Amino acid sequence: MLGAASCGQDAVPNGTRLKPEFADACTGGGLDLTSSNVAKDGIPALTDPLFVSLDAPGATYLKDEDRVIGLVISGEALAVPLPIMKWHEIMNLDRVGARLAVTYCPLTGTSIVFDRGPLDGVAFGVTGLLLDNNLVMYDRSESESLWTQMTGGAICGPAAGTSLPRAPVVETTLLAWRTLHPDTKVTSSETGYDRNYLVNPYEDYERLDAPPLYDVKNRDNRRLPKERVVGIPEGDGGLAVPFMVLDATPRAALTLKVGPRTVVVFWDRASQSAAVYRPVPVWADGYERPVEGALTFEAAGDGYVDRETGTVWSIEGVAVAGPARGSRLPFVEDALVAYWFAWADFHPGTEVLSGL
Which domains, from first to last, does the chain contain? Predict the structure, then answer.
C-alpha cells in the first residue's frame, strides 16, 4: 500500500532504515513525502556505466526514435537513453573536469543533469520516496540529505536550503542526437543489472490522458496531464509552452518575455525537442562581437538563424555555421521540459502559451 509520510524515519518503505543522523535531521520537517513500495536503492542508480559506439553490441537495444539525454562533456558527446534511465533514474557520471548526476523522473517526465562538484562529487541514490510525484534523491554522504529532482534543492538534512547547479542538456531522439554528433557514444545495455531495456515499464502511464500516479495538490485541467510542456519559472508561476501548441510548426524560435527575463525557445517537431536559452551569446574566441545585447532568431533550414549576424545555431544553442561559429547561447538553468500536470503542480500560478 502506498501512502503519505512525513520527512523522517516513518517515510522509508519496506522497513529500510536510513541512518539515525538523517532521521534526526528530517523528522518534523513538515514535508509530505509519498512512500512507495520500492525500498531505498531498490531502483539502483548507475555509477560510471560503460559507454560504447553506436555499432557496438551493447547498443543494439536502441532504436532511432528512442529518446536520449544528450550532453557534451569536454568535447565528448554522450547519449544517455531513457530506456536505461526508466529503470535506474540516476546516473552518477564522472569525466575529466566534470562530476555530474544525470537524472530522469518517469513520473514527471523530467530529464535534468546536475553538477555534483559543489558537493565534492558525492554520488546520489534513489530513496524510493516522492514529493508531488517527483523523484526524491539522497546524497551518499555521512548525513544523507534528501533532494528533489525538479527543483535541484535539498529538502531536509544538513544540506537543506541549498541547490545544485544544472548542466546543459537536450532531451531528443537518438536519430537527432547522432545527426548532431555522429561520433556520440551511448550507454551500453551491459550495466551489470538484470533489466530488459527493450521494455518500457511506463508505456500505459505515458498516455496523454493518463492521470498522475499520485494525487496532485494543484490540479490544472487546461492541458492533458501527460502533455509535455517546456516551462520557464517565475516566482510560483512562470510560463508553460505546450508541445501540442508548438506542433503547429516544424521548427520555431520563439522570443518570450517571462517576468524580467527575455528568453528564446528553440523547437524541432521531428524530434519533439525544445530548449530554452538566453539570447545574449558567449562569443567564440577571436570573434569580434558585432552587436551589443540580445540576438533575434528565426527558424531556417535545419537550424535557427540570428538576424544580426546570419549565423546558424543548433538546438543545443551552439553556432554551427556562419561568422560566429563556435559561439554559444547560455542555457536557462531553471527551465525544463515536464509533463503538464507536474509543471502546474510545482508552479500553480503558471501562464500557458495558447498559440504561436
Answer: 40-186 (no CATH), 228-352 (2.102.10)
